[in-house]
Design goal:
The protein folds into two domains: about 45 residues, no CATH class; about 70 residues, no CATH class. By secondary structure, the protein is of the alpha+beta class. The protein is built from five helices and five strands; from the N terminus they run ββαβααβαβα. The strands form two sheets. Strands 2-1-3 form a three-stranded antiparallel β-sheet. A two-stranded parallel sheet has the order 4-5. A hairpin with a 4-residue loop joins strand 1 and strand 2. The protein is globular. The two termini are about 20 Å apart. Bound molecules: zinc ion.
């Protein structure tokens, strides 16, 4: 089983389980997936990779997040490589770890990982800035 964060055309985020990535593709192609909030069946995978802003993500890489470049797959792969190399992956422990980093000013660690939409909202309410990276697959 594999869990995907999904996002509809209206930016609603929700999670769903699939037996594998082919099942997701198949169901999505047949428009059998729909948003749990608005029933839209324009669904895409949203692999959330939020992270603490600053430290190791330099200006140059930040500019890759420019809307213009968001569709440039090569740029996104570069960005992904940069993050994988320079940030510590904390998986679904992200919301826990990000607080450690945020409240302990000594720690200048850059981390990335996943959050649920609820966790993301909580962190935002605490004033912790997160950036979501469109996480492109390297293999297709
Ligand atoms: Zn929706």
């Amino acid at each position: 089983m594999i869990k995907y964060n999904l996002e509809c055309e209206n930016n609603h985020e929700f999670e769903s389980w699939f037996s594998d990535s082919n099942e997701f593709n198949k169901l999505n192609k047949q428009k059998l997936l729909e948003c749990i909030y608005c029933s839209s069946n324009k669904i895409q995978k949203s692999i959330m990779s939020p992270m603490v802003s600053g430290t190791k993500l330099d200006e140059d890489k930040m500019s890759l997040l420019d809307q213009k470049l968001l569709n440039e797959k090569n740029q996104l792969i570069k960005l992904r490589n940069h993050i994988e190399k320079n940030f510590e992956f904390v998986g679904d422990k992200f919301s826990e770890k990000v607080r450690d980093v945020y409240y302990d000013k000594e720690t200048k660690k850059s981390i990335y990982g996943t959050t649920t939409p609820e966790e993301k909202k909580e962190l935002e309410e605490e004033g912790i800035d997160l950036i979501s990276i469109p996480w492109v697959g390297k293999d297709n």
